[in-house]
Design goal:
This protein has 193 residues and is mostly helical. It has helices at residues 2-5, 10-28, 35-45, 57-82, 92-100, 123-142, 147-156, 160-185. The protein has 2 domains: 1-85, no CATH class; 89-193, no CATH class. Helix 3 packs across helix 4 (57-82) and helix 7 (147-156) runs antiparallel to helix 8.
């Protein structure tokens, strides 16, 4: 059982994930994406609907909402079966680079020096959580989808706008990693509140 539920190598997990999208497109005509789910939730919850939410969310969004519920349920089930897994799988070279920026080795996916309620008032916390969250939401709406939608579904469907979006995601990620993040974490406020 542990071999089945443990960490799978990239050469198994990658093709399995990659095969889901063509199957959804070919057999169900359903695109894969997450950012549109929030719109469907808002459309379902609104009483007096603004024009943006005035559509038949049951017809357009029920499948998408079931997919998101499956993601959350599957994550909870995996966590229940696998338990809280130890240290995040980050390479030693990356840990050294993070240590140089003031990020200590820790468990969990997000550094506590930035992503905690206490750090929300710091420059690094505000930029990472508030400004970063706004830019993600704005970018997903303006760009016609999120990173998973463009990189997985859009590329599988051979859409040129998705190829351009994915190139922009990578360029932006490289810029933030090599220019913004060192400046932000070097601002003297990491871990200081």
């Amino acid at each position: 059982m542990d071999a089945l539920l443990g960490r799978w190598p990239w050469w198994i997990a990658g093709p399995l994930l990659g095969s889901i999208v063509p199957a959804l497109l070919l057999f169900g005509g359903r695109p894969f994406g997450i950012s549109s789910s929030l719109r469907h939730v808002c459309a379902a919850a609104c009483g007096e609907k603004p024009r943006f939410f005035a559509y038949d969310w049951r017809r357009r969004g029920a499948w998408n909402l079931a997919f998101v519920a499956g993601l959350v349920g599957g994550g909870a089930l995996a966590f229940g079966l696998l338990g809280a897994g130890g240290e995040t799988g980050i390479s030693e070279a990356t840990w050294r680079d993070l240590a140089a920026l003031g990020i200590a080795r820790q468990e969990g996916p997000a550094p506590s020096e930035v992503f905690t309620w206490e750090q929300l008032g710091s420059l690094a916390g505000f930029v990472s959580i508030v400004l970063g969250g706004f830019l993600l939401g704005f970018g997903a709406r303006w760009g016609g989808g999120c990173t998973s939608g463009h990189a997985i579904t859009g590329l599988a469907d051979r859409q040129l706008p998705s190829l351009i979006a994915v190139a922009a995601f990578f360029a932006g990620g490289l810029f933030v990693t090599h220019a913004v993040l060192p400046w932000l974490l070097g601002s003297g406020e990491v871990g200081g509140g």
